[in-house]
């Protein structure tokens, strides 16, 4: 049971007029959307578009972002065919996917994760790219700045400036943490950037960070077990490798009564104690709105500012709190909404 603190206001969008006429190829190619429906890519008609989707792995947060993206497109009334591709957690496959989408001549690429966006940018300087679920878009060299991305790329990031600060404050003030453990894939640039920020924030509060690195989801359980006895709590960031296999972390945390703060709300629903987060559906939706501007208004992606998530909300998992013997404190209850 997840208890939500603070209501979240969803993004709204105005109806946009369709302007762009897309032309089909002489050569017919067949691809598959996420639901397994065969699509004929030379069937494009006036005012229809093909959007190539590159997603690093399937897990609830990324899936919700893709759903939000599609909803924004639907709300705008666009006729869109999706070429959905997942790399199944293998960053090298994002390169193959990007090259495939460029070869198919899609109208726009929706890159759902940092590795997906980096591969897409390397593959094309012409096809517009809209990303989401990216933590540090500037550090990943996807854009020049949030205000003026430049080139053919824009999107929405998945790290609110206050997420780490609020989480570290909760770990110290509410859980009395002195040593915090984290597990992440050192091959994910977004994860490396987050861990650096987490470490700095914890050390500023006199809390140490103990790190455990993984390369694949198969290594998650052993990495988590290596932290037992060294830490008094866990902080799982938005690392795609770890989040895709989060149940392994939850099993170890529960067995050893380790409070586990997480980086996104979907991970709270799966068993994390709590998170300061936002709905991935919403950042996906906002990314979709940017795609609509590009497709229907002829705007260049690099001229559309990249954006952060909206206001944060705290979500506490009551079942996890009960398992730890933690009482929901009065100051939490003051903002509780069922």
Describe, in short, the structure shown.
By secondary structure, the chain is an alpha/beta fold. The protein has helices spanning 60-75, 91-104, 114-123, 163-173, 189-204, 220-225, 240-244, 246-255, 265-269, 280-297, 318-324, 330-333, and strands at 2-5, 30-32, 38-40, 48-55, 79-86, 108-112, 129-134, 153-157, 179-185, 208-214, 233-236, 260-262, 274-277, 313-317, 336-337. 36% of the residues lie in helices and 22% in strands.
Commentary on this structure:
The chain is of the alpha/beta class and 338 residues long. It folds into 2 domains: 11-158 and 279-303, Response regulator (Rossmann fold), CATH 3.40.50.2300; 163-263, 3-Layer(aba) Sandwich (Rossmann fold), CATH 3.40.50.2300. It is built from 12 helices and 15 strands. It has helices spanning 60-75, 91-104, 114-123, 163-173, 189-204, 220-225, 240-244, 246-255, 265-269, 280-297, 318-324, 330-333, and strands at 2-5, 30-32, 38-40, 48-55, 79-86, 108-112, 129-134, 153-157, 179-185, 208-214, 233-236, 260-262, 274-277, 313-317, 336-337. The strands form 4 sheets. A 5-stranded parallel β-sheet has the order 5-4-6-7-8, with helices on both faces. Helix 1 runs parallel beside helix 10 (280-297) and helix 2 (91-104) crosses helix 3 (114-123). The longest helix has 18 residues, at 280-297. It is elongated, with a radius of gyration of 21 Å. The N and C termini lie close together (10 Å).
């Amino acid at each position: 049971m997840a208890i939500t603190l603070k209501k979240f206001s969803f993004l709204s969008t105005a109806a946009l007029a369709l302007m762009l006429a897309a032309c089909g190829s002489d050569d017919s190619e067949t691809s598959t959307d996420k639901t397994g429906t065969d699509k004929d890519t030379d069937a494009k008609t006036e005012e229809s578009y093909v959007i190539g989707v590159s997603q690093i792995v399937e897990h609830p947060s990324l899936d919700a972002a893709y759903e939000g993206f599609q909803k924004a497109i639907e709300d705008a009334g666009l006729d869109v065919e999706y070429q959905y591709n997942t790399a199944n957690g293998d960053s090298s496959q994002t390169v193959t996917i990007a090259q495939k989408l460029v070869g198919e001549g899609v109208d726009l690429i929706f890159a759902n994760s940092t590795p997906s966006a980096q591969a897409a940018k390397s593959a094309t300087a012409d096809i517009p790219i809209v990303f989401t679920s990216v933590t540090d878009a500037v550090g990943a060299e996807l854009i020049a700045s949030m205000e003026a991305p430049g080139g053919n790329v824009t999107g929405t990031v998945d790290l609110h400036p206050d997420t780490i600060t609020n989480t570290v404050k909760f770990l110290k003030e509410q859980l009395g943490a002195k040593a915090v453990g984290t597990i992440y894939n050192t091959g994910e640039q977004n994860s490396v950037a987050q861990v650096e920020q987490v470490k700095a924030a914890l050390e500023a509060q006199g809390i140490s960070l103990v790190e455990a690195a993984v390369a694949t989801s198969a290594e998650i359980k052993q990495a988590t077990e290596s932290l037992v006895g060294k830490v008094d709590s866990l902080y799982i960031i938005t690392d795609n490798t770890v989040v895709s296999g989060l149940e392994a972390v939850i099993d170890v945390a529960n067995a050893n009564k380790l409070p586990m703060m997480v980086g996104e709300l979907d991970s709270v629903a799966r068993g994390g104690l709590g998170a300061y987060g936002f709905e991935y559906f919403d950042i996906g939706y906002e990314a979709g709105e940017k795609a609509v501007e590009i497709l229907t208004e002829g705007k260049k992606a690099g001229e559309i500012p990249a954006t952060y998530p909206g206001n944060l909300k705290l979500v506490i998992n009551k079942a996890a709190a009960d398992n730890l013997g933690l009482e929901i404190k009065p100051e939490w209850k003051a903002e509780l909404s069922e």
